[in-house]
Design goal:
Elements lengths: L1 E6 L6 H12 L2 E4 H10 L3 H10 L7 H13 L6 E5 L5 H13 L6 E6 L2 H15 L6 H15 L1 H7 L4 E5 L4 H12 L7
Helix pairs in contact: 1-9, 2-3, 4-5, 6-7
The protein binds BIS(adenosine)-5'-tetraphosphate (B4P).
BIS(adenosine)-5'-tetraphosphate binds next to helix 1, helix 2, helix 3, helix 6 and helix 9.
Length: 193
């Protein structure tokens, strides 16, 4: 089994690249953003709670997200591996994921961190907001999400750097060019299917 974390600030292209990677390498795509949005859409108790945080550009509490991930992994026992998109986003989530995977006799193999300048992130997210209707893609909330990233999520990179699993990739190229840069790292572990 091969497990990959795609890491980066809001709008760095985690969701976009994860889909390509999941298709190319036959990995199970797990996006906490998508899972949370589907709970919000279904107006489940979890979704109603999560929406309060997401609409303000804040991270959803760790225990909510960690529980969701555990059941998602259990749904695909035959998977070739997982690509975690937007998770872990705090040190507590990273530690919980390490424990969870150890319990399932597996581990994170590689963490690819997308680097994109802040001005480009804001342009992309405002652009996405025009079409997506996402309530967290407006300038005021985007600025809060980037602030939340710097204070709570950036330290997760150190967690994986200390385990010698972190590779940084420039993510301000076109979608195809960025994918090629990411694939170079993945190819060292796994062949496309
Ligand atoms: P997410 O859904 O994870 O979304 P994101 O970080 O905003 O976007 P991503 O990096 O995936 O960018 P994308 O590919 O879409 O999070 C949303 C919210 O959910 C969080 O703020 C938080 O509240 C909550 N949440 C999620 N996970 C959580 C967790 N683990 N713990 C707590 N809370 C959590 O790309 C953005 C745009 O750029 C798109 O329009 C795309 O088309 C464009 N784009 C991508 N690559 C490009 C390129 N190379 N060139 C030009 N444009 C590009």
């Amino acid at each position: 089994m091969f497990n990959l974390v795609l890491f980066g600030p809001p709008g760095s292209g985690k969701g976009t690249q994860s889909m390509h990677i999941a298709n190319t390498y036959h990995l199970q795509h797990v996006s906490t953003g998508d899972l949370l949005r589907s709970e919000v859409e279904g107006q489940t108790p979890l979704g109603v709670e999560a929406k309060k945080y997401m609409d303000q550009g804040l991270l959803v509490p760790d225990e909510v997200v960690i529980g969701m991930i555990s059941s998602k992994i259990d749904e695909s026992p035959e998977a070739r591996g997982f690509i975690f998109d937007g998770f872990p986003r705090t040190k507590a989530q990273a530690e919980a994921l390490d424990k969870l995977l150890e319990f399932k006799n597996t581990k994170i193999d590689l963490v690819l961190a997308l680097d994109v300048p802040e001005a480009e992130l804001i342009t992309r997210l405002i652009g996405r907001g025009v079409n997506s209707g996402r309530s967290d893609d407006n300038q005021e909330v985007i600025v809060k999400r980037i602030k939340e990233y710097h204070s709570k999520t950036e330290p997760v990179a150190n967690h994986y750097d200390a385990q010698d699993k972190l590779e940084r990739v420039k993510g301000d190229h076109t979608i195809d060019e960025t994918f090629k840069l990411l694939a170079r790292h993945i190819d060292r572990y796994l062949l496309p299917v």
